[in-house]
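Q&A log
Question type: sequence-to-structure
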Amino acid sequence: MENKEKVQDKEKSKDFWREHVAQADRFPGTQNEYCRQHDISKSKLSYYKLKFAEQSKFAKVKSPSIATNAPQPNRPLVRVKSQIDPAWLGEFLRELLK
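Response status: OK
Response body:
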């Protein structure tokens, strides 16, 4: 039974799931096939895939240097003092408008 407990502990580790998420992304078949071949839970793989994707999304965001002022009421002017990814800027502005 000791071996079974070790396997269960390993499955709980984030490293275990991070590796499976990476391998499943490179796997030529479906996610279901990957999970069957590796005898792992599809729902857990999906959970960690989403969790790691969310973590990396926030980890990659770099806050640019931005200066604002309002030369006219209700018409702010935004000056970006560094190179900025247009996709990031669009996402940033959409969040501000919520």
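Response note: The chain has a mean pLDDT of 76.
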